[in-house]
Design a protein that fits this description.
This protein has 212 residues and is α/β, with parallel strands linked by helices. 30% of the residues lie in helices and 29% in strands. The longest helix is centred in the first third of the chain and has 19 residues. The structure holds 1-O-pyrophosphono-5-O-phosphono-alpha-D-ribofuranose and uracil (URA). Uracil binds next to helix 6.
Length: 212
Amino acid sequence: MKQFPTLTVTNHPLIQHKLRYIRDKATPKKVFKELVDEVGTLLAYELTKTLPLRAVEVDTPLARTTCQVVDCEKVVLVPLLRAGLGMVDGVLKLIPNCAICHIGLYRDHDTHEPVTYYFKPMSETEERLFIMVDPMLATGGSAIAAADMLKESGAKTIRFMCLVAAPEGVEALRQAHPDIEVFAAALDEGLNGDAYILPGLGDAGDRLFGTD
Ligand code: PRP
Ligand code: URA
């Protein structure tokens, strides 16, 4: 996208179809969770299209041949708690052997600034691809804070995956971390006065975990 050079919006019909039900406030919690997972899988397919491959020799029942593999253990999934947890199983369906590095943060209700409560850095960070997952990119504050922590711990390659992005968040993340590519199912109109995404899908964490 010219206006948002770090952003890829995946307009796959199945993603857009599922997003219609994810957005719908009438969708029950169980179905909401299943759909978030499924879109997580589809977005992960898009985000991993450019993963590097390594040649290995394999014996088929008939001959020796060269195959290509991904070093899955070099991929680290980084769910931003809580709502990012809702996309973990979906990504694990494609990359079951990846590591998972949780980052706990929440937005302060009044300031909308992120407050961090959990981060355990990984080792060998320089060689790994970190995939941050969170359904929502609103002001971008949470994604920026998480990327700051990952980079301080040595991470060099980071991508971000979300269901719904606001233009404000995409731009803020690009300003802070121009090297981080963003993969989203939708780019929405913008933020309301409470920094919620419009039209959005409401509070992703509350809808996933039945809280309010
Ligand atoms: C939500 C969402 C993101 C963040 C996005 O989390 O899951 O992490 O807000 O907003 P931002 O781009 O303006 O930072 P929330 O703070 O509601 O915490 P939760 O996941 O624990 O519900
Ligand atoms: N967090 C959410 O869960 N939803 C929004 O619209 C914005 C931030």
